[in-house]
What we know:
The protein has two domains: 2-76, 3-Layer(aba) Sandwich (Glutaredoxin); 86-191, Up-down Bundle (Glutathione S-transferase Yfyf (Class Pi), Chain A, domain 2). 56% of the residues lie in helices and 7% in strands. It has helices at residues 10-21, 36-46, 66-76, 86-113, 122-141, 153-168, 179-188, 192-196; strands at residues 2-5, 29-32, 54-56, 62-64. Glutathione (GSH) is lined by residues 9, 11, 50-53, 65-67, 107.
Amino acid sequence: MQLYHTPNSPYARRARLAVREAGLLGRVEEIDLHPREENLARLLAVAPAGKVPVLVTDGGAALCESLVIAHHLDDVSGGKLYPRDPAARERALEVEGLASALMDSLFVRSREKRRPQAEQSPGVIELEAERAVRLYDALAARVAVLSADAPDMASLTTAAALGYADGRHPDDGWRDGRAALASWFAAIMKRPALAETVPAF
Ligand SMILES: N[C@@H](CCC(=O)N[C@@H](CS)C(=O)NCC(=O)O)C(=O)O
C-alpha cells in the first residue's frame, strides 16, 4: 500500500497513526507530498479531490478521506483499530466523531486565518472557535473512553486533533480546566507512533 501525506496535515496524521498502531508500517510506503504546490500533479494523479491523505490499496483502489482509510486499515489488520465489544465500539465511534468534528473545525479556522486579511470572515472564525470549545469540553467529559496503552481510532483521532490545536491554535489553551484530558494526551504522546508523526508547524 502507499499512503500519500503531508507532515502537518492532521487528517494525514490520523491515517499515519492508524498505519502504525494497526502494525502495518511494514506494508505501507509513506509518500511525503510536501511542499504541496510542487507535488500537486502527483497528488491529482491519484486523487481527484486533491487532498491528503490518500491510501492506494494492495488492490489498486485510491482511498481518500481519513475515516475511510482508517476503516480499510482496520479491515486489513483484522480489527486492530476499533473495539469488538459492541458497547465499547459505540462509545469509541462517538468519541471518534467528536474528535473528527474538532479536527474539521480547527482546520477551517486555521485556513480562514491564513487568508489575506481582507478576505477573512470574523464570523466564521468566531463560530469555529466556539465550536472548538464545545468539542474540547465534550472530549474532556469522555476521557475515560481514551487510552494511551491500547489506542483505537477514537484515541488516535483525538490525539491528532489536539496535536493540531497545539500547533495552529495554541491560544485556545485547550488544557486549561481539562487536566485529565491533558494528562491522557501527555501519556499517548510517548508512544512511538505519536512521536514519529509530530508535525513541524
Ligand atoms: N475530510 C478529509 C479532509 C482532508 C483535508 O482537508 N486535507 C487537507 C490537508 S490538512 C488538504 O489536503 N487540503 C487541500 C485542499 O483543500 O485543497 C479527510 O478526512 O481526509
